Every structure is written in structure tokens, then in C-alpha cells.
Amino acid sequence: MHKTIQSSEDRMKKTVTSLKDGFASLRTGRASASLFDKIRVDCYGDKSPLNQIANISIPEARLIVIQPWDKGLIGEIEKAVRSSELSLNPSNDGKVIRIAIPPLTEERRKELAKHAKNQAEQSRVAVRNIRRDGNDELKKALKDKELTEDEENRTSEELQKLTDSYIKQIDQILEEKEKEILEV
């Protein structure tokens, strides 16, 4: 496999991973521990990821329970969740924090689906840009006589197949996320 193909594939994988991470933090109508991946909590003079200072569980489809390992942090965790962009309203009983996930309005679901489509489109554009960069590398290698024309054509076709497969992956990920967002 040509080094251009390998480096392009690595970059395309990162693009897809980035899209998945972006989708994980998109709030749908159901509870998910990944919603809290970006929340940092003030503890012991440092900001720590929530999942490193508490256990996050989903006992029901629309309920999240956060159980801090140190009960003294319960107030800080609650404050961090309230101030996040998730618009959630946590309540605590001194031992655990409970968060009821309200169902999304039809308008909000459509808004989230549109946002997901935009993120997917940005990922498709990124994958196509990686293909273009790869083709530019191949043309330069051909010009510098590092490749024959046949090798350049073959590698370029391989790069196109790779691009198609990653765009197909992005489409599948988007389709799954839209289904999740739009389900009532």
C-alpha cells in the first residue's frame, strides 16, 4: 500500500472518529452517559472530567443517576451540570444526583437533526479534502518520477475507493443518529 493511501486513511479515520464524538454529545430524547463526556467539575482546585469523579448510570430510558465517589463533591457536580450547555435540571438527595431527561419538542428534534446533517456534511468535505491532498501528493510523486503513470492511476483509484467507503460510513452514522433524534 502506498504511503499516501496509508496517511489518507489515517486522516479519514480521525475524521469519522471526530464525527462520532461530536454526535455523542448531541442530546437526544434518551439518557446517555456520553452526554457528560465534556463536563468538567471543580474538585480539589482542579477541573476533572465528571466520569473520573463519579459513577454515571442509566437506570431508565429517561433518567440518569450520578453517584460521586466523594459525597463532598455533590454540589460542585450539580453546579457543573447546571452550567453546561445541556440545559438539564439535576436534583440531589445528598448521596446521588438524579437527572430526568425531558422529551424533546418536535422543533428541537428537527433542529438537532439539521445540526447533525451539518456536522456530517463537514466530515464529508474533510474526507474529500483529504482525497484531494492525496491526489496532489500522487501528482507531485509522478512529476518527480517517483511513480509511473500506471502506479499513480492505480493509487488514485484506490484513494477514490477509500474516500467512497468513508463517505458511506459517515452517511450510515448520520442515518443512525437521525433515527435516534427523531424517535419520539
Provide structural commentary.
This protein is α+β, with helices and mostly antiparallel strands. It is 57% helix and 15% strand. It has 4 helices and 6 strands. The strands form 2 sheets. A 4-stranded antiparallel β-sheet has the order 3-4-6-5, covered by helices on one side. It has a two-stranded antiparallel sheet with strand order 1-2.
Oligomer: single chain
H/E element order: HEEEEHEEHH
* Share of helix, binned: 55-70%
Overall form: elongated
Q: Tally the helices: what do you get? A: 4
Q: How would you state the average pLDDT, rounded?
A: 87
Task: Describe the strand arrangement of the main beta sheet, using strand numbers.
Answer: 3-4-6-5
Instruction: Provide the gyration radius in Å.
Output: 22 Å
- How much strand content do the residues show? 5-15%
Low-confidence stretches: none
Strand tally: 6
- Please give the largest β-sheet: 4 strands, antiparallel
**Structural class, from helix and strand content?**
alpha+beta
Distance between the first and last residues' Cα:
46 Å
